[in-house]
Amino acid sequence: MEFNLVKSIEILERTPSVLEHLLHNISPEWAMSNEGGDSFSPYDVVGHLIHGEKTDWMVRLELILSDKADKTFQPYDRFAQFAESKGKNLDQLLTEFKTLREKNLALLQSKKLQEKDLLKTATHPALGSVTLRQLLATWAVHDLSHIAQITRVMCKQYKEEVGPWITYLPILTR
Amino acid sequence: MEFNLVKSIEILERTPSVLEHLLHNISPEWAMSNEGGDSFSPYDVVGHLIHGEKTDWMVRLELILSDKADKTFQPYDRFAQFAESKGKNLDQLLTEFKTLREKNLALLQSKKLQEKDLLKTATHPALGSVTLRQLLATWAVHDLSHIAQITRVMCKQYKEEVGPWITYLPILTR
């Protein structure tokens, strides 16, 4: 499938409501448990997505489109949500994510991006030169991959409870 | 996390609306593409979930609770949806799944299952003896694992488009 802006926005605009229907008012055992160590719980993932809305995707898009001499992205802090989500419950985070995403998609649409804009580049601190097109494709994939992660983490809370069916559920041992 | 009927139903009752918000009216490139070979597209997964509602979960529950002499499950056809979904569009399947799931959850609630019911067993044709508790835990995990699968399959449609970011997206090479 080739990159398409409209079809990328199809994904981006759905994620807040998908997460709301998956997680709103769910028991803490499902929302707050992780895969061990410093891995993310569903609650942590929503905080991570909020941090991305604030500091990553649209900030990087603006930098790519700008006339700045140094177009190097700020590194992204993948653990910022552990501090930033403190004191907020999951439903507050879901609402915050929805609001930020709506704002960012309105801003994205207002750019009226052309094909030539999608080819513009900036420098990722670890990955080197990247295009706006790649940034937008990654934003959509990042959303989907975190829905996959949330559901995988939730699956694993019942790892012992499925008994012999574990044989048919490779997700539990991934 | 220990098995809990109410918390299992929390998952089971959400899946239809999660899938609806993820897939309703989405472009066919997202819905109909798979991971190659006879792997499932999101469309195929919804058909697979429908087949489970019709022939697997509650049918097996009824068998476990029954007084039948032979409590061996019928084998489950994991490819039935390739024939059964023919001629139906994705939105029809999403509605069909929602209706069947509502009906099955109403039936499940009507059983007023007790702890002693959860310990009742039947024979899985490949896995041997399984309990009702394990069946119900597996039903919830099966739902979540297929949401994870759908989003993974969707991610992969942009595998080429994310460029160097593929390094940070292990889901694309899984």
Tell me about this structure.
The structure is a homodimer of 174-residue chains. The first copy, chain A, is mainly α and 174 residues long. Chain A has helices at 5-23, 28-31, 42-55, 57-65, 81-84, 90-110, 115-118, 132-156, and strands at residues 121-124, 128-131. In chain A, strands 1-2 form a two-stranded antiparallel sheet. In chain A, a hairpin with a 3-residue loop joins strand 1 (121-124) and strand 2. The mean pLDDT of chain A is 97. At the A-B interface, helix 1, strand 2 and helix 8 of A face helix 1, strand 2 and helix 8 of B.
Quick rundown:
Chain A is mainly alpha-helical and 174 residues long.
Cα-to-Cα separation, first versus last residue of chain A: 27 Å
Helix-strand makeup class of chain A? mainly alpha
What about the largest sheet of chain A? 2 strands, antiparallel
Helix-residue proportion of chain A = 55-70%
The string of secondary-structure elements of chain A, in order, is HHHHHHHEEH
Give the chain pair forming the largest contact, with residue counts. Answer: A-B, 51 and 51 residues
Determine the number of helices of chain A (DSSP H or I, runs of at least 4 residues).
8
| Rg on CA atoms of chain A, Å | 18 Å
Keywords:
2 strands; 8 helices; two-stranded antiparallel ribbon; mainly alpha; homodimer; 174 residues; elongated
List the topology elements:
The structure is a homodimer of 174-residue chains.
Chain A: H1 5-23, H2 28-31, H3 42-55, H4 57-65, H5 81-84, H6 90-110, H7 115-118, E1 121-124, E2 128-131, H8 132-156
Antiparallel strand pairs in A: 1-2
